[in-house]
Amino acid sequence: MTTPPPSDRARLRRAHERGHYDREAVNSVLDAGFMCHVGYVADGLPYVTPTLHWRIGDKVYWHGSAASRAIRASEGAEVCLTVSFLDGLVLARSGFHSSVNYRSAMVFGQAQKVTDPDEIVRVLDIFIDRIAPGRVAEIRPPNDQEIKSTTVLWMSLDNASAKIRTGPPGDDEEDYAIPVWAGVIPLSTQAGAPIADPRLDDGISPPDYLAQTAKILTGSVD
After folding, report:
1. Which 8-state DSSP code applies to residue 174?
2. Are 202 and 119 within 8 A, CB to CB?
3. Which of 42, 114, 174, 175 could disulfide-link 73, Cβ–Cβ 3.0 to 4.6 Å?
4. Rounded Cα–Cα distance for residues 91 and 46 (Å)
5. Are 65 and 59 a contacting pair, CB within 8 Å?
6. CA 8 to CA 76: how far, in whole Å?
């Protein structure tokens, strides 16, 4: 059974056949990478700020400096958080039908602030281990000043949608006879070899868990 849109705001108006409203589809896009864009209004003007995100259960989180305009304007306000990935260039037999393969998700709702210091540390630890699983056990924990200067916001995933395009071009039937190449040029994000900090002590090798970061970026997480 197809999952209906959670609200009229989340319902797709164009290419609605590419829309997905089930939590699994939305989570798959949110979990595929690290960067999102948050749209909000500050001083009566619209802004969209890129930042890093992570998901815990049915909530999506992001963080920033407590003095950040993006954070201060978003706290308690209605915002729109988006995540998108470009998976391929779709070259059709006409410019009109040329397209891209992509995955995207939009989350609508009111941004809530995490206020408990212990909870701030807990969710930030999950964030760090999300980027490099196992990292938290090795690094210094945050001190009181760092916690005080950091604001963590979250939003429920109850009002969200995903939009996904895959596959070859969709040409007009008569255009398939045109003798020109058509198809897809796949695109992907890859993690390169780790580059050591110039001040790293001799004998310290990249940890094995960094391989999991590469798997996240290629969509091959165990």
Report:
1. G
2. no
3. 42
4. 34
5. no
6. 22
Other beta carbons less than 10 A from residue 46's beta carbon: 8
pLDDT tens by residue, 24-67: 999 999 999 899 999 999 999 999 999 999 999 999 999 999 99
Nearest to 167 by CA among 105, 82, 103: 103
Q: What six digits make up the tokens of 120?
A: 């701030």
Domain boundaries, the chain: 16-85+103-167
**Is 103 exposed, middle or buried, given 0-12, 13-18 or 19+ CB atoms closer than 10 A?**
buried
Report the alpha-carbon distance of residue 190 to residue 90 in Å, rounded: 20
CA distance 93 to 53: 38
Instruction: Compute how many other C-beta atoms are within 10 angstroms of the C-beta atom of residue 119.
Output: 12
- At residue 14 the predicted structure's pLDDT band, cuts being 50, 70 and 90, is confident
List pLDDT tens digits, range 68-101.
999 999 999 999 999 999 999 999 999 999 999 9
